Amino acid sequence: MKATGEFRALLRNLMDSSNFTLLEISYNHAGSDFSTEWKTNSNRIWGYFRVHPQYWSDRIKKLRASGANTLETYVPWNLHEPQRGVFDFGNGTFDMSQFLDVRRFIQMARDEDLLVIFRPGPYICSEFDFGGLPSWLLGDPELKVRSSNAAYEARVKIYFDALLPLVTDLLWSNGGPIMMVQIENEYGAFGTEDYPHLEYLKSLMEQAGINELFVTSDSPLTAGDKGALPGVLQSANFYDDASGQLAALLELQPDKPVLVMEYWSGWFDHWYEPFHNARPVAVFQENLEVIFNNFNGSVNYYMYHGGTSFGFLAGANVIPFFPNYLPDVSSYDYNAPLSTVKYKATPQIM
Fold it and tell me: Computed over its alpha carbons, how large is the radius of gyration of the chain?
């Protein structure tokens, strides 16, 4: 695998090319060298808000040592605006304040020569309370979340106006590590197909000065292109059947690189389940080999390091049979590679 410094130089050359745009990546434009580098682009996901900041440096160093060249993170709106109009980016007095210096987190990734994929939502899922949306949004009976509802989009704009300026100097185009930004999250699975809302979110990011590679993420076999936008790279989220998922992705965008935004390295646990969800290393490796060898793809491990959903921040799942509501446990261990034998298995495949 090429060194990250060479990878950055390659991306910069491609961005400066007159016949290449980050919003229209294709193998024909990028050439075989970019295709090869994209194949070996191995990334890791963990949320800074689930790990005490005293451990950030340790976890990032271990991430880099595993062979990764990119760190990916969500950004939880409910923690950064815990009260309407009151923002906390690590300088507040709330219980979680010390976990919320997202700017410092990204700078620490840069110091380890890592690229960054930035996923600001505003909805993030992540088995987090209300999918990372602030609970106080529910106080407005006219507000409809994740839609082009005027009341909702007004609050998103206020939040993005506070968040995005904190990281604009850390964008790739400004010499920083953030080279990719995700729009919303698994919007195709939400089922509303409110494309004006996705366009609105993209416009807010562009107005903030973001012109990096935009991306959406969904499971192609089930969502198709329902959460996609023209000119925005689609990526895949899945647990298994890498062949089926990525074949479906290529049908949707045959001229684009293959990116797995979330390859689910394990799974989360619910209260009262009689077992801890764990994924055999052999199955984990099999899907990775398909991603790399059969589809020349890049992959993000969701999760690389799970951490903890502190307090009452763990999310829940709704199912169509008893007991209908499945609350997630506080531990977000996720059977993630850092704390399992998968950590040592990964570089062997790469």
Answer: 19
Alpha helices in 208-341 (DSSP H): 220-223, 242-252, 281-289
Phi, psi of 193 (to 5 degrees): 55, 45
- Report the half-sphere exposure of 280 (CA within 13 A, side-chain side): 5
Instruction: Tell me the pLDDT tens digit for each residue of 108-117.
Output: 999 999 999 9
Distance between CA atoms of residues 259 and 297, nearest Å = 6
Q: Which residues contact 238 (CB under 8 A, 6 or more apart)?
A: 219, 221, 245, 260, 262, 263, 264
Which one of 81, 153, 186, 212 is the catalytic residue?
186
CATH H-level superfamily of 41-309:
Glycosidases (3.20.20.80)
CA angle 40, 46, 51 (to 5 degrees): 145
Extents of the domains making up the chain: 41-309
Q: Which residue has the tokens 């130089």?
A: 9
Q: What average pLDDT score do residues 154-169 get?
A: 98
Question: Which residue in the list 262, 273, 286, 289 is annotated as catalytic?
Answer: 262
Indicate the burial class of 283 (C-beta count within 10 angstroms; 0-12, 13-18, 19 or more): exposed
**Averaged pLDDT for residues 206-220:** 98
Residues 151 and 147: their CA atoms lie apart, in Å, by 10
Nearest to 212 by CA among 180, 176, 249: 180
- pLDDT the model gives residue 331: 96
Mean pLDDT of the chain: 88
Q: Is 212 a catalytic residue?
A: no
First-to-last alpha carbon distance for the chain, in angstroms, is: 8
pTM listed for this prediction: 0.89
Report whether 278 contacts 335 (CB < 8 A). yes
Confidence (pLDDT) at 11: 46
Q: Measured between alpha carbons, how far is 12 from 21 in angstroms, rounded to an integer?
A: 11
Active site residue 251: no
Query: Per residue in 61-83, pLDDT tens?
Result: 999 998 899 999 999 999 999 99
